Amino acid sequence: MKVDVVPIPQLNENAPVNVANYWIESVVKKSKHKDEAWDFIRFITTPENIKAYTDATKQPSPLRAHVAAQQEDPELAPFVQGILTAKNWYTGKDVDKADEALSNLMAQYILPYADGRNQLRRDAQLIINAATIMQQTL
What we know:
The protein is mainly α. The protein has two domains: 18-88, no CATH class; 95-136, no CATH class. It is 48% helix and 4% strand. The protein has six helices and two strands. The protein has a two-stranded parallel ribbon. The longest helix is centred in the last third of the chain and has 18 residues, at 119-136.
């Protein structure tokens, strides 16, 4: 079986929207080794180290200077193409709970339907349950 990665279809090609998940490195105020931690963050965020990391992990680079080269990689290109229009998917207070709600939604969605149950009603209820949990974390 041949499997490809493709960009997410867009409803409005003039104003594409993509979803991202950003992680930000920081140092805890109570850390016993603040200087070393900040030194590591400075080290890992230099352009050459970002390139080495993103090349090794096949992740889109956060630096615009790397975008053109990464668009040449057929496996990475669909993800890189959406970088400049990406918005963070979550702005609440409990990302772990929101992520768990989405994971549970997907896990339950792929389960077979019970005999005699309305498929559309079940799927709608799964979405409502996940949305309710996520709403509570905002």
